[in-house]
Amino acid sequence: MGFLLARRSYIVVAALLCVVVPCNAKLSTKFYAKTCPSVEAIVRAVMAPAVAVEPRMGASIIRLFFHDCFVNGCDSSILLDDTPTFTGEKNAGANANSVRGYEVMDAIKMRVEASCKATVSCADIVALAARDAVNLLSGPAWSVPLGRKDTRTASQSAANANLPGPGSSAASLIAAFAAKGLSARAMTALSGAHTVGRVRCLFFRGRIYGEPNINATFTAAWQKTCPQTRGGGNLAPFDDQTPDTFDNAYYTNLVEQRGLMHSDQELFSGGSQDALVRKYSDNAKIFAGDFAKAMVKMGGLVPAAGTPTVVRLNCRMLN
Question: What global pTM score does this model have?
């Protein structure tokens, strides 16, 4: 018993040491094999009912992962709440009243802490939840490398600067992903996450009322949901064919000029990604494989060297 108590104390201390000593260890799919072997089952046990009750939540968790990783690495900075003395990323332009799933992360973290105290980072929980979200919506599964740590800070300015917007051009998207070490192919594959989820009228109004490269029937249908002068918060599915199924229909829509946002249709607009979009439209297996590889690659983005990190006990606040 004394040995077990000592071992648990060591784990807690080792995790908390990352507060003063940056812990950017190499990620491994077996990182928690001895310290928290049940972590993946715990994450899945919370994600399955959450997605079953509201399939849109699956898309929201995938987006949460992307918005975390693209701002100074996959460090769960997006989960930190604002306080009177701390400004986080939740109210950045691309996140405010838009990013969802925080309560699901809370529920997972609570169960994980009950099983493995001060061991599993919030950043790893987000990565696992995103993988499960894809798979629970009938998409691919993959082994998730683990061992991330949680940052002790966040940057609203970095979130505003790094997250691509709905009006992005293909060139700016390629450049934004290249800045993170991600190829144009990875960008086009990751954009396929828009095969699930919803988007507010505010972000696609300009396309359905002002762009020529759009299917006329598609335009007429969504103009009813999204009037020119009101209803900015009205929701529409990115993929109106199979909105809650993770498949390759997103790319078929692009080929048919049924991309809902400008940045979506930019991937098939006479540019460098047209051939790949056609390939994904024709072959769901190739898309699924590329998407999984790109998610692992993006999940490998880590905070800059020297960044103080920790395993947060509550994902919303510092220990």
Answer: 0.91
